[in-house]
C-alpha cells in the first residue's frame, strides 16, 4: 500500500522488504528507485509501474479506495493461483472452495491454530534478543524498518507545518531549530530546537510533528477497511456472526489513537507523576504551551537507543543495572500503578547520556498506553506470588474468585493444569528461567476449561515479556526471575501491611465523609423498616392462622355432612 512504500513503484512496494522475498543485492528501477530482487516464481506478481513522487498531486480518496481494493483482489488471486498445482489448478480451486465452505469447524480450527503460534513467536523473539546477529534479513529487521519507510517532510515544509500547527512563525518561537528530523517515525518526525524564551525553565526541547498528508492516507485506508467490512456483513452471514464491522472500527480507532498527540502528552505527564523523583527514569517534561493536535513539545533529553550497546558502554553506562531497572520499572508500571506501555519494544526505549541523568531510562514514546483496574492488578500480583511459591491451589481459587472460569469448573482440575504447565519452569537455575513465560501460563491455563482472562492482563504480560527480552539483550546474565519475584512480592506485602490498610482507608474516606452525618437518619430508617417488617410478619402469621382454622372448619363440616348422610341412609335401610 502507499502508506508503507518508499518509492511507490507498485501498489505493494512494501512487500519487497519482507524477509521471505528479500535477497542479496538491489537493482535500480527505470525511475531511479532501488528495488530488491524477488524470487523468479513470484516475479510476475510485481510489475514495475511509474513512481508516484512526493510532488505528484494526491489521488482522490474514492478512486484510491477502489484502486487499492482492485489490487488487493488481483494480487491475492494471483498468489492463490501460483500456490495451486500446475496441471490441476481449476480442480484444486473448486475442491478448496467447497471444502472450506462445507467445513463447520473451519472457524474453530483457525481460532485453535492461532494461539498455538504464540509460544513459537515468543521463542523466536527470545532467540533474537539473546543473539542479535540472527536478526539479519529476518522479519525483525523488516518490522523495525517500517517506521522509516515514509519520507520525512522537506525543511521548508517542516517550518510551514510547525508554524501552521502552533499558529505562530517559527522564528518568533525558536532561537534555532534543526529542520532535519532527529527521529523519523511512521507518519511522524521529531525535531530538536532551542526556544527563544525559556518555558517553565526549559529552553532545549524536542517537538514531534505529525505529517498530515500521510495521516490522511492512513485514515483513508482505514475507511476502506471499514467499507469492506460493512459490505461483507451485508453479504455474508458468517461475517455478521464475526462482527467484522465492529472489529474494523476498533482497529481504526487503535491505529488513529497512535497519532493523538494530546493524549500522548497526557500519558507522558501521568507517568512522570507516577515516577516522580525516581532515579531510574528520566521522563521529559511536557511543554503544554506548544502542544496541539499535530505537535507534541517536550524537554529534550540527549539519549541513545537502548540496544546501542557500544555507544552506551563508551559513555560509561553500566548495562547490568540498566537491564534490572527496565524489568523493575515495567513491572511497577503495570502492577503497581496500572498504567503501562501497550507496545513496548527496544525502539521505544532510550537511555540518557546527559551528565545529570546518565544511564537513566528515557521512556518518551507514550502513544499507546493501557491500564489495569484495581481488581486486575490484585489478581495478577497475588496470582504471580502464588505461582512463584508453587501454590497452585491458591491460584486456582483466585481464578474462580475472579470469574475467569465457570463456577462448575473443579478447582483440583485447574490446579492440576497449572501444575502441569508451570513445574517445568522451576527446573533450570534462577538466572536461566523466564518469568514472562511463567506468567503466560498464569493467564492461559484457564483456556482448556472454556475460561478467559481480560485482554488488558494479556497486554501487560506481553509488555513484561518485551521488557524481559530487552533486559536479556542488554545483559544476558540478568536474573529477570528473581527481579520480578522480588518486585511482585513487595507489591503483595504492601496490600496487607499497614501501608495497604492506610491506603484503603484513605480511598474510603471521601465516601465516609458523606456517610457519617447521615448515620442517625439511616438508623431511624432502619428501625422503621424493622418495625414495619415485624408488623408485616405478624399480619402474615395472623392471616395464615385464620386460613388454617378456616380449612379445619370446612373439613369438619364436610365430615359431619357425609357422616349424617351415611347415618340417614343406614336408618332408612333398616326401617325397610
Overview features:
9% strand, alpha+beta, three-stranded antiparallel β-sheet, disordered N terminus, UbiB_kinase, Ubiquinone biosynthesis protein, 576 residues, Kinase-like_dom_sf
- Low-pLDDT residue intervals, each spanning 5 or more residues: 1-59, 114-124, 128-149
Question: How many β strands by DSSP?
Answer: 12
Structural class: alpha+beta
Rg from alpha-carbon coordinates: 34 Å
What is the overall shape?
Answer: extended
Instruction: Report mean pLDDT, rounded to a whole number.
Output: 78
Query: What is the number of helices?
Result: 20
Strand content: 5-15%
How many strands, which pairing sense, and closed or not: the largest β-sheet? 5 strands, antiparallel
Measured distance between first and last alpha carbons: 116 Å
Domain ABC1 atypical kinase-like: 152-396
Protein name: Ubiquinone biosynthesis protein
Transmembrane segments: 555-574
InterPro entries: ABC1_dom (IPR004147), Kinase-like_dom_sf (IPR011009), UbiB_kinase (IPR050154)
Describe the structure in your own words.
The structure is a single chain. With 576 residues, the chain is α+β, with helices and mostly antiparallel strands. The protein has three domains: 1-59 and 77-83 and 139-145, no CATH class; 150-300, no CATH class; 318-500, no CATH class. It has helices at residues 61-83, 89-102, 106-130, 139-146, 155-166, 170-173, 212-235, 237-242, 244-257, 261-274, 309-314, 319-337, 374-388, 392-402, 411-422, 435-444, 455-474, 480-496, 498-515, 519-575, and strands spanning 26-28, 34-36, 174-177, 183-185, 188-199, 202-210, 295-299, 303-305, 339-341, 350-352, 361-362, 369-371. The strands form four sheets. Strands 3, 4, 5, 6 and 7 form a five-stranded antiparallel β-sheet that branches. The protein has a three-stranded antiparallel β-sheet with strand order 8-10-11. Mean pLDDT is 78; it is low at 1-59, 114-124 and 128-149. The chain crosses the membrane at residues 555-574.
Amino acid at each position: 500500500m502507499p502508506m508503507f512504500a518508499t518509492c511507490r513503484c507498485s501498489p505493494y512496494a512494501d512487500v519487497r522488504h519482507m524477509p521471505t522475498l528479500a535477497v542479496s543485492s538491489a537493482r535500480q528501477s527505470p525511475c531511479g528507485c532501488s528495488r530488491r530482487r524477488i524470487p523468479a516464481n513470484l516475479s510476475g506478481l510485481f510489475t514495475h509501474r511509474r513512481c508516484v513522487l512526493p510532488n505528484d498531486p494526491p489521488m482522490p480518496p474514492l478512486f484510491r479506495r477502489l484502486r487499492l481494493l482492485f489490487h488487493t483482489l488481483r494480487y491475492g488471486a494471483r498468489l492463490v493461483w501460483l500456490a495451486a498445482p500446475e496441471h490441476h489448478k481449476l480442480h484444486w480451486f473448486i475442491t478448496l472452495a467447497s471444502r472450506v465452505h462445507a467445513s463447520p469447524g473451519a472457524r474453530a480450527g483457525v481460532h485453535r491454530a492461532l494461539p498455538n503460534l504464540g509460544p513459537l513467536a515468543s521463542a523466536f523473539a527470545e532467540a533474537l534478543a539473546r543473539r542479535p546477529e540472527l536478526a539479519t534479513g529476518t522479519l525483525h529487521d523488516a518490522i523495525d524498518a517500517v517506521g522509516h519507510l515514509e519520507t520525512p517532510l522537506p525543511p521548508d515544509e517542516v517550518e510551514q507545518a510547525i508554524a501552521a500547527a502552533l499558529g505562530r512563525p517559527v522564528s518568533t518561537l525558536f532561537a534555532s531549530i534543526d529542520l532535519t528530523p532527529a527521529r523519523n517515525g511512521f507518519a511522524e518526525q521529531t525535531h530538536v530546537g532551542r526556544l527563544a524564551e525559556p518555558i517553565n525553565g526549559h529552553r532545549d526541547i524536542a517537538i514531534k510533528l505529525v505529517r498530515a498528508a500521510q495521516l490522511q492516507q492512513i485514515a483513508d485506508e482505514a475507511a476502506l477497511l471499514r467499507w469492506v467490512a460493512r459490505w461483507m456483513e451485508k453479504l455474508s452471514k458468517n461475517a455478521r456472526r464475526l462482527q467484522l464491522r465492529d472489529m474494523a472500527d476498533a482497529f481504526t480507532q487503535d491505529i488513529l489513537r497512535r497519532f493523538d498527540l494530546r493524549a500522548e502528552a497526557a500519558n507522558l505527564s501521568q507517568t512522570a507523576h507516577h515516577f516522580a523523583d525516581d532515579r531510574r527514569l528520566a521522563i521529559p517534561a511536557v511543554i503544554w504551551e506548544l502542544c496541539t493536535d499535530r505537535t507534541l513539545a517536550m524537554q529534550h533529553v540527549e539519549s541513545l537507543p537502548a540496544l546501542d550497546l557500544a555507544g552506551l558502554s563508551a559513555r560509561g553506562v553500566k548495562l547490568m543495572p540498566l537491564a534490572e531497572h527496565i524489568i523493575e520499572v515495567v513491572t511497577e508500571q503495570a502492577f503497581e500503578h496500572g498504567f503501562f506501555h501497550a507496545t513496548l519494544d527496544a525502539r521505544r526505549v532510550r537511555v540518557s547520556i546527559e551528565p545529570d541523568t546518565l544511564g537513566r531510562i528515557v521512556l518518551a514514546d507514550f502513544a499507546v498506553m493501557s491500564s489495569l483496574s484495581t481488581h486486575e492488578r490484585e489478581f495478577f500480583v497475588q496470582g504471580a506470588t502464588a505461582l512463584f511459591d508453587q501454590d497452585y491451589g491458591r491460584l486456582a481459587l483466585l481464578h474462580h474468585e475472579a470469574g475467569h472460569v465457570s463456577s462448575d469448573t473443579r478447582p483440583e482440575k485447574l490446579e492440576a493444569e497449572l501444575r502441569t504447565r508451570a513445574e517445568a519452569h522451576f527446573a533450570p537455575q534462577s538466572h536461566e528461567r523466564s518469568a514472562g513465560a511463567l506468567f503466560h501460563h498464569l493467564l492461559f491455563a484457564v483456556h482448556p476449561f472454556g475460561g478467559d482472562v481480560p485482554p488488558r492482563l494479556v497486554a501487560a504480560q506481553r509488555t513484561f515479556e518485551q521488557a524481559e527480552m530487552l533486559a536479556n539483550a542488554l545483559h544476558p546474565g540478568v536474573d529477570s526471575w528473581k527481579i520480578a519475584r522480588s518486585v511482585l512480592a513487595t507489591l503483595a506485602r504492601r496490600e496487607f501491611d499497614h501501608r495497604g490498610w492506610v491506603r484503603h482507608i484513605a480511598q474510603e474516606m471521601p465516601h465516609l465523609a458523606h456517610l457519617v452525618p447521615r448515620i442517625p437518619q439511616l438508623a431511624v430508617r432502619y428501625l422503621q423498616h424493622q418495625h414495619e417488617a415485624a408488623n408485616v410478619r405478624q399480619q402474615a402469621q395472623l392471616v395464615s392462622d385464620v386460613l388454617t382454622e378456616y380449612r379445619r372448619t370446612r373439613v369438619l363440616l364436610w365430615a359431619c355432612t357425609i357422616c349424617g348422610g351415611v347415618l340417614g341412609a343406614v336408618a332408612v335401610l333398616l326401617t325397610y
